[in-house]
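Example record for the data management plan.
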Amino acid sequence: MTDAPRAATWQGSVALVLGSSTGGVGQHVASLARGLLAAGCRVLVVGPAATDEHFGFAAAGAQFAAVEIPASPGPQDSGAVRAMRRALNGREIDVLHAHGLRAAFVASLTRPAVPLVVTWHNAVLARGLRGQASALVERIVARAATLTLGASQDLVDRAVSVGARKARLSAVAAPALPAPRRSRAAVRAEFRITPDTPLILSVGRLHPQKRYDLLIEAAARWRELTPPPMVVVAGSGPSYMQLAQRASELRAKLYLLGHRADVPDLLAGADLALITSDWEARQLFAQEALHAGVPLISTAVGGLPGLVGDAAVLIPPGSVDALDTAVRAMLADPARRAEYAARGPRQAASWPTEQDTVADVLAAYASVTTTARAGQG
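Corresponding structural encoding:
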């Protein structure tokens, strides 16, 4: 995947740009920043102030410039563009690397004089006027980028279809999870459940794409099981109130935990991990669950089938019946759970590491800067 000799010698200056994030994109940028600093690069991170508070870019040794990039396109983008130009002004930057369409759109409007690398992390799922606006953003970003990197092959294909000059796959590795600090018994004691009560875990942003509405419907059905499992969802987001109200209406045994910094502990206490999304690339929680040896049931969408292989039970998206059936079958068969728990770490061992991801990105930087210098010559 990488050009190792060139990647090893590239030690330039890069500006990493991201929009609002509390999850996967921010974790990836933080991992990348640490790896680039360790490789001898100079790193500036540009993004909302909250991202530095959440992911600790400056604490890791990177420079940080606060630029509030709005979640949706609009007139406010002009202010973000001006702020980004101020953040970049006077700095010697060799590569501008934007993560996600919103950050890339604002970065492209600054008309950078250096190569623009864009990593596509998510597909556009919106429809109607919002979908049309997002499709326009896709085209602008694809055509502005010197190089487009996709976290899954369907994103690469989409970028090419809307005009990307050069695009390729670049796997996003999950940052290594620390060891759990609490025992399984201690985690389960937090939720006041008996030793024989199954604990089902999902981790992700509370957003319609994640389809936690389906999980709530299924959890309401599981009240009839003996003992009924407890379902917990770790994450924050705009759908919190709607989901909480729906869980209450259906009397589902499901609890929204908000943002949690102890995912390793939660995994240590869990019997089953669930992903119900309409789309994902290389979702970090899928990687975390398999690394931890927690049996995983996931929708077969985006890059997930290629990521998990035969180490997870795959179900069609949007089907509460498929989710219900898969969970019941897994809970009823301890031997099957043990088999999938063993498959997870074996599958995880085949994935690129954080170091591989950094090496791949360094090779990308070497490629675009070499091309830029050749063009100037």
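Summary line stored alongside the record: Confidence is low (pLDDT under 50) at residues 1-6.
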